[in-house]
Every structure is written in C-alpha cells, then in structure tokens.
Design brief:
The chain has helices spanning about 20-30, 60-65, 70-75, 80-85, 115-125, 175-180, 190-195, 210-220, 275-280, 285-295, 325, 335-350, 360-390, 395-415, 420-435; strands at about 10-15, 35-40, 55, 90, 100-105, 110-115, 130-135, 140-145, 150-155, 160, 165, 200-210, 230, 235-245, 250-255, 270, 300-305, 315, 320. By secondary structure, it is an alpha/beta fold. The radius of gyration is 22 Å and the shape is globular.
C-alpha cells in the first residue's frame, strides 16, 4: 500500500454498492491505498441489501481472511456444529411425513450470515480513497476520445471515470451499454439482446425471514430450527437455515415451471404476497414444511431471472462482476460467493503495481480469462443441481435406485466448493498480467495454507 501523496494513478467508478461492489472497493483500498481513487455509485439512498441469508463457504472465508475481517464475520455468523451447517436434503412431498435423503459434507463446513450484517461489516472497511454517491442510478455511459467515460444517471447528472465496473446486478445498465456499443466485429450483432437482457427461468422464489422463537412455539422439534435444510419435491423445494446467530430463520421457497423458461415475464419481478399464498403451494408437503411456512412474515415473490452466458466480461476499460456478469440460479447457494470472488480478484489486479492506466485493459483481460469460465461453470452446475433435485417419492426399487443416482450427481456437482479459491485465481491472473505487459512470471505473494474454520 502506497503512503505517498502522489495523485492517483487512475480513477475507478463502481456502479452498484451491493456485496460485490463493496468487496471490490475494500480490496482496492487495502492493496492500493490512495493510488486508486474510487467512486462508488449506489442507485438507492442508502447501502442496503436484498434477500436475507448468505452462505459463507470456505472459499469466501479465505477472502475475508485476506481482507482482515474474518474475525468480524465469524462473530456475526450463526454458531452451530458443522453437521448442522452442511446442507441436509429431505424428500418432503409426503403429507404424512418426509425422510432424510442425504447430507452434503464439505472439508470446511459453511457458515450462515444475515446479508445486512455482512454489508455492515464491509461498510466499516471502506477506504478513505472511496467516495460514495447515493441516488445515482446509471442509465448509460459514453466513451470520450481520450479514453475516459462519461456516466449518465437517472437524475440527469453526469460524472467521468477512467475505469468503469458494472456491479449493478442482473438488470445491469453497464452490461447493456457495453454490448450495445461493442464493435460489431467483436460479437454477433444478432445476439446483443440475448446478452443484454436477463432470461426468466420459469421459477418463482418466495422469501421470508422470521424469529426462530415463532417456529419454536409452533413446532419446537422442527428440524429447520438448527440445520441447513433443503426440503425437496417435484419442481418445488424449500431452503431454510438459521441466521443472526440462530435468532432468525431464513426461508426461500422455490416453485419451477420449465415450460415457461425463456419466455417473457410480464409484471413486477418482485412483489409482496400473502403467507397463505405460499402455504397453499406446499399442501402436499410434510408437516415440518407446513409449520415452517405458517411462520413466514411479509413474504415476497421474486421472478427468478439469470444472465445468459456472455462471450466476454471486459472490454477496453469496462468490466462486469457478480450478477451483472453471471446472475445464476440459487441451487448451489453460490451467487454471493462468486460475486465476492470476482471482486477480490479484480481488486487485486487493479491494485497491482504493473497496472498503470495503459495496462488496465490487460488487467481486465486477465480477470476475464480466469474468472469468466469458472463462474459460468458454477452457474451451469447450479442449474443442473436444480434439475436433479426435482424428485418424487420413490415407490419401487428402480425409483430408489434413481434417487441414489441423483444423490451422487448432486455430490459431484458440488465438489468445486472444496477445490481452489479466489486467492489461487488471483495468483494465476497476476501471472497472466505479468506475461501480458512484459513483467515476467516471478512470485506474486504468498498464499495462506488454509483459512481458519468459522
């Protein structure tokens, strides 16, 4: 980190102060100090978050250790035995009572955190070199001839930057402008809309958070009080786990209709619904699920959209991270974690001593080459996992064998969680950067052998 009073080597604009945008700003500040000036633009009047629970995997905790905030994350995480933090899968579309199917075990059990707790911790680590601008919703940007960009916001104001990062979610204006203004020899013009606009999966997510005491009073032995549970059925499932140190229960109920996947979605993507609407969808599920859903407070319904696979995530001095680049289905609980990994690798590359303004495109290319294939792999694996978890109650030996096959598929599709990580990705990307700008392939920085368990 530089301690000099020299002017910044370039300016970075991050559009979107969600988890990915915050981690990026923190990473740049930690490893570049005042060498990079960051402007963080948030569309709302405060930094908040949608959704409630976030899974902190081994890969995520490794990054938090590198950023020096693992202790705070650990203190805010739900404290429970590792066996309760690893996902347990149940066959639950049995009105009389379901049964445990299998449990996923990881080398390091994940922890569960309230998203707002994570955002609050990240805010504390924002560097002095970062200026936050609220009520700034980007509509589009223009490239100036010297190489900088003019940002246009919905309130009519403008700003300029050298490097633009789209951390603005699934409906990213940065992604839209990037692909609509690309040279026509870079991508197929007929596919611009495919890359620009998200696709509806045909699924609805129903979200709710409520006090664990409420469920204790209703059903004191409910398995969801202590464990990470996936209640599975045919094209329906409920995901539940404790957050806020076990005082709250996070619930996500998912209903899918594959025939509607890829069709236009009409109406509001997010809307308030009644608890009765959610309960009605799961009348054929076991009592534990029914009692869980009876406790839901102020549920919201989300039309689940994803970003179609992109041919690139960076061009010139514009780059995409997180949901703006690879919004995915939630069946691997990996969306937030992958946004954090993107942000860490990109932040380290931008802070690299070799990354001058002229070398920014090389740094962004290194980020793209390392991160884009992996995040798209994770998105595909998540989608496959969702397909495999569509199950009915087995009645024959053949159906029991099919359940065993499906279990092995899920376990295989989650192996990536125990392999590699963002620190290894950063080291690989740094080598690519050095090779690209002629800086050699010497050592970058040591890597910690393994992060402590949460």
């Amino acid at each position: 980190m530089s301690l000099s009073s020299a002017p910044p080597k370039f300016r970075v604009a991050i559009c979107g102060a969600g988890i990915g945008g915050l981690v990026l700003a923190v990473t740049i500040g930690k490893f570049a100090g005042n060498d990079i000036h960051v402007d963080l633009y948030e569309a709302h009047d405060a930094i908040s978050t949608t959704g409630a629970g976030v899974v902190v995997s081994r890969r995520t905790s490794e990054i938090m250790q590198e950023l020096g905030m693992l202790d705070e994350i650990s203190r805010a995480s739900t404290k429970s035995p590792p066996s309760n933090r690893s996902p347990k899968h149940r066959i639950s579309n049995v009105p009389q009572g379901g049964f445990e199917w299998f449990q996923v075990t990881f080398e390091t059990a994940p922890s569960h955190l309230h998203r707002q707790n994570l955002v609050d911790i990240l805010k504390q680590y924002l560097p002095s070199s970062c200026n936050i601008h609220f009520n700034k919703r980007l509509t589009h940007y223009d490239k100036q001839s010297p190489g900088s960009h003019i940002l246009h916001f919905a309130d009519g104001s403008t700003a300029t930057t050298d490097v633009l990062i789209g951390a603005d979610g699934v409906r990213s204006s940065v992604r839209k402008t990037l692909f609509e203004t690309l040279d026509r020899n870079v991508v197929d013009p007929s596919k611009i809309g495919h890359y620009t606009y998200p696709s509806w999966t045909g699924a609805f997510l129903y979200r709710s958070v409520f006090s664990a005491k409420k469920l204790e009073q209703t059903d004191p032995n409910n398995i969801a009080l202590k464990s990470f549970i996936l209640f599975c059925g045919n094209r329906k499932r409920v995901i539940s786990y404790p957050i806020s140190q076990g005082t709250l229960i996070n619930v996500v109920a998912i209903v899918t209709d594959e025939q509607k996947a890829g069709t236009p979605f009409e109406g509001r993507w997010v809307s308030d619904v009644s608890s009765e609407e959610v309960q009605e969808l799961y009348q054929d599920f076991e009592p534990a699920v029914k009692n869980l859903l009876k406790c839901c407070e102020n549920p919201t319904r989300w039309a689940l959209h994803v970003v179609n696979e992109l041919p690139l995530s960076a061009y010139d001095k514009v780059v995409l991270i997180g949901d703006a680049c690879h919004a995915m289905t939630p069946y691997s609980a990996a969306g937030a974690g992958q946004a954090i990994e993107d942000a860490f690798v990109l932040g380290r590359l931008l802070a690299h001593p070799l990354t001058t303004l002229d070398h920014v495109p090389a740094a962004l290319k290194a980020y793209q080459d390392v991160r884009l294939p992996f995040t798209q792999f994770v998105a595909r694996e998540s989608e496959r996992t969702g397909d495999v978890l569509n199950v009915d109650v087995p009645n024959t030996d053949q159906e029991h064998e099919e359940l065993e096959i499906r279990k092995e598929k899920v376990l295989g599709q989650l192996k990536w969680e125990d392999e590699g990580g963002a620190v290894a990705d950063w080291l690989e990307a740094a080598i690519k950067l050095r090779e690209s700008v002629g800086g050699g392939t010497g050592n970058v920085e040591p890597i910690h052998d393994s992060p402590p368990k949460l």
